[in-house]
Specification:
Layout (H helix, E strand, L loop, with lengths): L2 H10 L5 H29 L3 H27 L2 H20 L9 H24 L10 H27 L6 H20 L15 H14 L1 H31 L4 H24 L6 H21 L2 H29 L2 H16 L2 H15 L2 H29 L1
Helix pairs in contact: 2-6, 2-7, 3-5, 3-8, 3-13, 3-14, 4-5, 4-7, 5-13, 6-10, 6-12, 8-13, 9-12, 9-13, 9-14, 9-15, 10-12, 11-12, 11-15
Main location: membrane
Subcellular location: Cell membrane
Protein name: Major facilitator superfamily permease
Amino acid sequence: MDAAQEQKRQERLAKFSLPLLTSNFASVFGEGVYRFGLNWFLVSTYGNAELLGWLTGFGFIVYLLNDMYVGAVLDRFNRKWVLVLSDLFGAIGMIALSLMINPDSPQTWILFAITAVMYIDISYAYPSGRAILPDVIKKSSLARFNAYVSAAFSAGQALGPLIGGILLRMDWINLRSFMFLYGMLLLVTAGINLIIKTHPQPIVETSESFVESLKNGFKYVYRMPKLFESMLVTVWANFCFEAFIISMPFLVQKTYNGSAQEYSLALTAAAVSGIAAGFILARYTKFNNLDTLYTDFFVLGLAFVLAAFINIMWALILVIILNGFVRSAFVIKVNTVRQEESSSEYLGRVFGLSFFATDLFVPIVSITFGYGVSKMGVWSLLVIGMMMIVGMILIKLYMRRRYQAAQI
């Protein structure tokens, strides 16, 4: 597409899209309600986070298998229809399996099947939901709309655990109820996705195989220093985030004898802080960059370390809230970098690879911390904090050398 055609396309794009914003909210809200119920039921039933760790690890293996191809799919097919069909698949699978599960003694194979359905849906819906933005929103408005999307995500994360906590107070609620509700919300989300107005660039026909397309995507990202840096940061940040997510329910329930309501309120407060991060970065877009992101991670890593030594429930809750703020800021900043630095031809593969980077080591960390948190207890916070600080320092030093070498 030449410059004149691109200018005309930009004129047809919107500065804001309510359906796209609502879709982001609905998808993460349903997932939040279901994950809250699943995590609580599994830990309370088995007394530990081991099965939760195995399910999460399995889910991220499913992620990785799909992440290998989702980028090429998004660059070859209409991204809106990929988004619609992925949520429709998730809705049908979740509702069907909810009718088969025994809520009093959940069949292990159904738990793994549910996890597979959910993660297949997410592995296509989330990248397509990010890659579709330049087909809907003007380039000049991307940074601000990314912040609004993150705020919508955080709002869904806030209400998900809150509604989950309210539902758990009802005598009739069980795991089947959470599954069925999630399936219905996915169905609603698929309907919302249908009304999103897009103006995509023409799809470039290619004869290269999916494997070749994937290789070219890797080469493209590696050649672009900022994109490559965003991938390295994503790998390590998500490693630490997932370690904390797996540890949280055990720490609240077993280490500090907290209730489901306290866990729900802590997650809600974290999501509200994520909403605040979204609005702050929508107002001050100059902070949407990787340099400020390193500062965010250093502060959060130090907070993890301090919470391990203070060793009280309120210290954990404050870390959960700060984690929500930093994670929301992280999503806004890396997505803005990817959308601004990537060409449209490679944008699908860039986001596919970004989710591959997100999921790369999650199976390992999920299983490791699923078992390890019961042994380490509160000291798991010290481990996570030190991993975050040291890892980010090493990435920053490596990229500094690469930027210096490029200038020679």
